[in-house]
Design goal:
Length: 243
């Protein structure tokens, strides 16, 4: 498979290493200093572009790839609220393909499945309130993390007493009873820790995913690219990992 990399930082380099190890070819590497390569024949030849950049440029990168009908796998977060509807339209009506996930880790996919199942159980136990905590490296621009938002939305979809989430960092107001509080921490070079906590007067239940490195994210992105090459439309980890 021919892969183009959009974003060639730590994640891009790790994705390159894993992709080459799985027998794929990197045909193009685009970073901030060679944006003109979006118009190159090498980029146009790619079966899939894997994009890990930042919230400010991700949407524009999708449009540049779509202009050449290059399928995209992206782990960039923070763009969904402003551009989500347009991207969905491009993939459902415009014939483009985006595989997007807030987190590509196989472990997080399993954690997500456990999170949804636990929320369904806890819907019947109102004595337990639920909150979330997430910790990432100091370079991460968005808070809460895209993974935390995804996990929160899964909980809200399965617990009737919760209808929204709220970032509690430096918040003047206490969250309402119907809101799921999320606390975000930014420390050192932490790849990512996510915890879902159910607390009552009697006891507490906590589930946690703790990433040891970015390697799991990179492998998941390459697996997603392999899947995306053979599929079309707006794709997610629910398509790739069918638990």
């Amino acid at each position: 498979m021919k892969i183009a990399l959009i974003g060639y930082g730590k994640m891009g380099r790790m994705i390159e290493e894993i992709a080459l190890g799985r027998g794929h070819e990197i045909v193009c590497k685009i970073d901030i200093d060679n944006q003109e390569d979006f118009e190159s024949e090498a980029f146009k030849s790619a079966d899939v572009a894997i994009e890990f950049t930042n919230p400010k440029v991700a949407y524009g990168n999708y449009l540049k790839a779509f202009r050449h009908n290059v399928k995209v796998v992206s782990g960039s977060t923070g763009w969904l609220k402003e551009h989500g509807d347009d991207v969905k339209r491009l993939c459902t009506e415009g014939g483009q393909t985006l595989f997007w996930a807030s987190n590509f880790s196989v472990g997080v996919a399993i954690f997500s499945a456990v999170n949804k199942y636990l929320a369904k159980i806890m819907n019947s136990f109102a004595a337990y309130d639920v909150k979330m905590e997430e910790t990432h490296h100091v370079h991460k621009l968005d808070a809460p993390s895209g993974t935390a938002i995804t996990l929160a939305e899964e909980i809200i979809a399965n617990i009737d007493r919760k209808d929204d989430w709220m970032l509690t960092n430096d918040a003047e107001d206490e969250p309402k009873a119907s809101q799921l509080p999320i606390t975000s921490f930014r420390e050192g070079e932490v790849p990512g820790i996510h915890s879902v906590i159910y607390d009552s007067e009697a006891d507490m239940i906590r589930i946690t995913h703790d990433a040891h490195s970015r390697k799991g994210f990179a492998l998941g992105a390459v697996l997603a690219a392999e899947y995306t090459k053979e599929h079309s439309g707006l794709l997610t980890t629910s398509d790739l990992f069918q638990f």
